Amino acid sequence: MLGYIFAGIALGSIYAIAASGIVITYISSGVLNFAFGSMAYFLARLFYFLNTESGWSTVPAVIVTVLGAAPALGAALYLALFRHLRLASPLIRIVSTIGVSVALPQVALLLFGNETINSAPGLSPQPVPGYHILGATASLDQIIAFGCVVLVVVASTIVLRLTDVGLRVRAMVDTEALTSLSGINPAVISIGVWMVTTALAGLAGILAAPSNGLTPEGMTALMAAAFAAVVAARLRNLPAAVGIAMGMGILTDFIQQYLPPNSSLTGAILVSIPILVMGAFLVVYIGFSGQTNEAASTGGALDRAIRPLGSDESSTASADKTVVNSRSSGWSPSMLGPVVVIALIALMPLLLQAYWLTLLTSGLAIALVFLSYTMVIGEGGMIWLCQAAFAGIGAVTTAQLATNAELNPIVAAFAGALIATPIGLIIGLLTIRLGNLFVALVTLTFGLLADSLIFTRDQFFQQGIGVPAYRPDFLTGDLPFSYFVLAIFVVLALIVVNVRRSTTGLALAAVRYSEPGARTLGLSVLGPKLLISGVSTFIAALGGGFLALAAEVAVPTAYSTFTGIVWMAVLVTIGVRSIAAAILAGIAYTLLPGVFHTYLPLSLGTVPTLLFGLGAILLAVHPEGAVARNGRRLQGLFGKIGNRRTPAADPATTPTELPEASTTR
Amino acid sequence: MSASTDVQPRLECHDVTVRFGGVVALDSVSLAVPPATIVGLVGPNGAGKSTLFSVLSGLRRPDAGRVEFEGKDITSYSAQGRARLGLARTFQHPEMFPGLTVREHVMLAHRISTKRSRVWTDLVTGRGFRRTDPEEVERVDGLLAALSLSPIGDRPVAGLSLGMTRLVELARALATNPAVLLLDEPSSGLDALETEQVTRVFELAVERRGVSLLLVEHDVSIVLNLCSRIHVLDFGVKIAAGTPDEVRSDAAVRAAYLGDDQAVGKGA
Amino acid sequence: MMSGEPLLSIRDLCVRYGPALALDGISLDVAEGDAVAVLGPNGAGKSTLARAASRLVPATNGTIHFDGEDITRLPAHQVRRKGLIYLPEGRGIFPGLTVTENLRIASSMLPRNRRKAAIEQGLEIFPSLAARRGMKAGMLSGGEQQMLSLSRGLVLSPRLIIADEMSLGLAPKLVDLVFESLRRFKTAGVTIVLIEQFIHRALGFADEAIILSRGRSSWQGPTKNAEDEILTHYLGEETAPAR
């Protein structure tokens, strides 16, 4: 009993250190650091490299990692990336931190090699000594973890409450503009905060390594649990975050003793505890306040007053310029781009050899899933991080219905999509009044829950082999199947384009840009948002079904939320509002690794993922995405050739006449 | 219900009170907007004008009091519901849809007021791929031309000057065929020429379409010139109401604006 | 008042907020020890002028000199260190910090041994602040918040104060108090730029005035005997403001 509590305290301590790092960066910079887990992994891997692989003793290795490398990494990331995010749109903030979380582990793999490390030594000497306390055993690692959290809490309380430095940090949390008006350079404080919180990430990573192992996924999952505490503390309350984190750790290990060991259900339940905690708190917050909007609570009135007008929208607005013309009905030059791209891709199956054709086929299937991001993020402006879970539900259902119920696989894929759609509608309904960040967090929670509760079920998982999903007879070959998927893509793309160009699309855009503006025109917010939720979920799940048919097996781990986040980073990098971008991103996602695999040394195998991550990071500087940027140049060219429009002149005359109203009241 | 006077006001509010925490932002404010007239609402900074606008347009619920539209109690109506009845508004900081073009702003507003169902039916009918309804094109073009916006019709609103943006917001509001239009500081940030342009549109809207306007404005000269009746708020209390001449000579109004000592005690 | 170079000198200042041109070619000289009132209706550009002078917002055109030095490109915190203080509209305080901490932040540029005395001095100016020294500034009443903002300014013995709508939303008695304290600054030789909506009070206080209208200066000159002209410009009793 007590032994479980000790383990729980140790786990809670790690959560608490991570949670405090995340809260501190959020309140001081407004950035919710989705890359915290990756930072922890990178630094823990560096510690392992120094300590275990290079034979340094523990103390210098810790000092170099936590007090040297970590602050340097934090400062570098601040200067290169985070300082640009202050005025960025919520989507760009989320995606570029996700970019860091994708890229950083790849850098570690390049630097330190990519062996799997299931358990790494922590800070205590090996073998880990144990101490008997009140009749139960506590390992030195557990005691150190607890010691560290006490140290962090005491030190940060002293610094924040009693020192001038702490006062300046708290002042900047209140209002940055007034801080600079008080003669203090806010950039210096920001850089300091990032250095400290990155050190906390390193510490959390090193402490977690003995029990959690050293894998990017494992570390990300652990830090996702820390996010639960952060959300429960409403992103801003540091003591609450630490307290809830500790409680969650203890609760997890307390429950563990009542569950059968070595059962997959036990594992699933343990992993889901923090997620359930997060879900419960969110439901309570939503239930009590009706809405949760993080934007209202950052900065002071003065900070808002000096922010350039419309800076929040400027990034999305510039991304929109490409599609501006396409919304007017009929043919327009901007439709040429996607048509040409799709036509060129349609030639590829005829030219490619078997290996490449297989890659292309799954790339096309992923492009279907990408269209769901185009719909929900690009059209709806809702940052959903659970599209992979929908795809997984589609894939798993398709395999079950096709293999166990012997349904036609194509029918099964559509049935899977129909089954997933209500889930999307429910999530849409739950998140309708939430701010962007909370929408992202709720959907992330759902995705992680699906990962741990649904996708680990033996019925779907089959010890990692998955359930076979054979293609129908007439589509067995990759060639016909690739054309079939392409045809589906075209149909779904037409649906997306129709939504965009119709009144529905106009209404959605209006709601996305300005809710007060839309509502006072008589537009309701609920309908368009729900519609997008449903349609995008349907598309994601259908794409998942076809992805399973492309692989001829539905392996649930292929649809992990983490994978989905990488997908999103790739698509947003290439362009989240463009059909051409969706199909190019899908193909790049499978073909690029294939190219590296085939033509370049094995050690560079991680480079494509690194590139995807870096691309997402670059969004902080170029928020519109690659295809949008270059597409507009091309389109501008076509536009000039096509119709020489008269240059728009600002009217300077005073209006003289107004047509009468169409209906008299 | 209110005593039926000779003319039924389009928009009225009775004893509207709003509190923010302990602060009373509006204290029993009543006013009426008769058909086809311009009513002004003025007062120093922080007097509660914008709050009253939020209450009238349905973005905020009053703690007490009621709002009526053509005699019907609409206090519990949402902003959407009021817009559908014929209540439109503009904002001090224009609430635009930056990625949409000028024409799309007007077109969307027009469709919402005439063919609301198209928000849904377009999905099934594949309307996005077909030519636009000629009658709609005519109406939208007419409105754009009237406000001299035709040359920039296909430009996205992001990047337009503030003056142009305000004209587009006006065009968008007029496209919903409103009976009452609430204007929140329509001339702030505009130069003299642009101000002249928007005020001309106000007069046209009243003359040609019989729209009623309620105007919040800091530029006192605009209010004095345009409005037939003016209400003055100070610290959430209505301190005066009347014709421009009456308001101009009202001692309490001058005190509230100039900060003279006579203001002490008013509304306390 | 004094001959020679003005303490603050603004030339052809233009500021753009996104699509809006908030200031369009403003020039203004403030001599050391003078009090200048910046008047004009809401949206005329008064606060923008103050924010540009304190370098919170960038100038798109024009120059700003303080004490003979070009500060047009200096970051805000360095401008503050030169002794130009901006007391922003709507309470220039940190609501999450206590009264004492607000003063500590303000005094953090002083040498360590002088800070304590400066903080005590800041608390003494307004007795009601001293009584609430441990309270979060956000919990103070509006008047007390303005007092705190003022005493934050005083802690550092500034050379120039830009006070932005200090009387906004205050009852007349508190407005009196605010002006009284500003007068104390002025007597102590501090140069003051006053942004005010209550023009009679502002004119009673200032030596010079500038009236802004839609981002431009519509009138500029000494306040003595100019009241009627100013009223005309301000209340717009003529239909179109003269350009």
Question: Overview of this structure, please?
Answer:
The complex is a heterotrimer of chains A (665), B (268) and C (243). By secondary structure, chain A is an all-alpha fold. Chain A is built from 27 helices and 4 strands. Chain A has helices spanning 2-29, 36-53, 58-80, 90-112, 140-162, 164-174, 176-181, 186-212, 216-232, 238-256, 264-289, 301-306, 311-324, 336-351, 354-379, 387-404, 409-431, 436-454, 458-461, 478-501, 503-513, 515-519, 526-551, 561-574, 579-599, 607-618, 626-642; strands at residues 130-133, 136-139, 467-468, 553-554. The longest helix of chain A is centred in the first third of the chain and has 28 residues, at 2-29. Chain A is globular and about 65 Å long. Chain B has helices at residues 49-57, 79-85, 102-114, 118-125, 134-146, 162-175, 192-209, 220-226, 244-248, 251-258, and strands at residues 11-20, 23-33, 38-42, 64-69, 72-73, 87-89, 180-184, 212-216, 229-234, 237-242. In chain B, the strands form 2 sheets. A 6-stranded mixed sheet of chain B has the order 6-7-8-3-9-10, with helices on both faces. The radius of gyration of chain B is 19 Å and the shape is globular. Chain C contains 9 helices and 10 strands. By secondary structure, chain C is α/β, with parallel strands linked by helices. Chain C is globular and about 45 Å long. Chain C folds into 2 domains: 1-83 and 159-238, P-loop containing nucleotide triphosphate hydrolases (Rossmann fold), CATH 3.40.50.300; 93-157, no CATH class. In chain C, the strands form 2 sheets. A 6-stranded mixed sheet of chain C has the order 6-7-8-3-9-10, with helices on both faces. Chain C has a 4-stranded antiparallel sheet with strand order 2-1-4-5, covered by helices on one side. In chain C, strand 7, helix 7 and strand 8 form a beta-alpha-beta unit. Residues 237-243 of chain C have low confidence and may be disordered. Chains in contact: A-B, A-C, B-C. Chain B binds chain C through residues 44-46, 159-162, 164-165, 185, 187-192, 195, 218-222, 224-225, 248, 257-261, 263-264, and chain C through 19-22, 24, 41-43, 165, 167-169, 172-173, 175, 196-201, 214-215, 235-241, 243.
